[in-house]
Amino acid sequence: MRDDRESMEVDVVIVGAGPAGLSCAIKLKQLADEAGKELMVCVLEKGSEVGAHLLSGAVLETRALDELIPDWKEKKAPISVEAKKDAFRFLTKTKSYWMPTPPQMHNKGNFIVSLSQLGRWMAEQAEALGVEIFPGFAAAEILYNEDGSVKGVATGDMGIGKDGEKTDMYEPGMELHAKQTIFAEGCHGSLTKQLIAQFDLRKDSDPQTYALGVKEIWEVDPSKHEQGKIIHTAGWPMDSKTYGGSWIYHIDQNRISIGFVTALDYENPYLSPFEEMQRFKLHPSVKPLLEGGKRIAYGARALVEGGYQSLPKLTFQGGMLIGDTAGFLNVPKIKGNHCAMKTGMLAAETVFEAMKQGEITGQELTAYTDKFKASWVHKELYKVRNIRPGFQKGFWFGFMHAAFQTLGGWMLPYTLKNHADYAQTKPADKCQPIEYPKPDGVITFDRLSSVFISDTNHEENQPSHLKLKDKSIPTEVNLPKFAGPSQRYCPAAVYEFVEGEFIINAQNCVHCKTCDIKDPMQNIVWTVPQGGGGPNYSIM
After folding, report:
1. Using one digit for the tens of pLDDT, what is the confidence trace for 126-161?
2. pTM exceeding 0.85
3. Which residue segments constitute the domains of the chain, with CATH numbers given?
4. For residue 373, what are the contacts with CB-CB under 8 A and spacing of at least 6?
């Protein structure tokens, strides 16, 4: 324990107030109440409020929520837009062709939601049960017991200046010591990354693979709006080697959610996921929908795509991994929130059952893994394990391979391997530059105007949370060899080269984590900034 930090003893501390973390907290308190037990559960959230950093498409399958809060309709959950019509299209540069909607993408019975709004409602349910939620406090450090088990976490210090010195606003972080620490950081969590290294949690799994989703909310002409309509596309603007696709979801109030997902195992360092999203909107089948409308929100985040074979070991001494931070996302379904919620509930059940048996401080609760393997989440992910890696050999091979699996009843005797995304990047001299259209400020936009409407903010006088292992690599390796890919893969204009100097505009960061994933030399380390910084999503 650091001398200048206060500590707080709790039963369980949960890092991250997303669907997984909140589901875990709610389930723990439900079980405690049923048993007449006192249980102190604390949730830390780095965003300024719960939901501020939550972004998803999002079509929600309510399976897990039905289990957790069966009366969610009566409790006025912000879930009201029923999925009514699915459409799947293959795009060429100028044409749109109907394709059969894959069975796993059928959305009858599902709902189009704002994940940030759902997160805030779930937080209300948790607090009503007595869960302590602390938004604006970023878990910045893992604490360990003398035996090496996880003791808890410490929040980051506030009021440290750019020079690394304490300012007049300095406040030391707080230590939270827990019997069990549950990590629910979302995709590519910074502390989870440390835990994976510390406990060698990937010893028996493939590398995790990722994609970057870029999302906008538009108000459109009412005559063009069809509430509940769901459209997905594949093909253009991606080439046949690059995995990606779009969504267009018609929400309520004449609004649509529109986004583009680019797999981060792309080869060409000239590719820009943000620009791919912008030129997608210019397609003749998409642009007319947006004309006469107004863009009202923007955001971006990485998402896990590795699936079953990329799941790390889920437990370690003193804690466990739940939700997207472990990788529980069903790529063919394009859904992960139901899996995240269920794994949070399974972790809660594991912790509470173990508590009834005796002392669990610092223990490794492997029963959580057993519960996962016996759950519908395991069955769901195992069944589709070969679909995403099948696209490594190109779109058409992947498409036919996916169709074969679906029609063949999923019974494949093999499991395809995943690879690290950064390692797939080719040198610039082996690739063709990509010429993207200039933004028109009407349908297409630049990064800075996009970041502005994400309501992203960081206290300026703080050390950069984007660290370089070697400050020379951006200019001496990444620029000459890979044409400086950070200025293109980042959707927030954080990185730029000015007169040969590498500039990091950390204030722009929307916390998508792409830089930590895609940097070809693995030189950028994403760490948490001061609590409360980052985007402030309200309807994403």
Report:
1. 999 999 999 999 999 999 999 999 999 999 999 999
2. yes
3. 7-73+115-207+307-383 (3.50.50.60), 81-112+210-304+422-526 (3.30.9.90), 386-415 (no CATH)
4. none
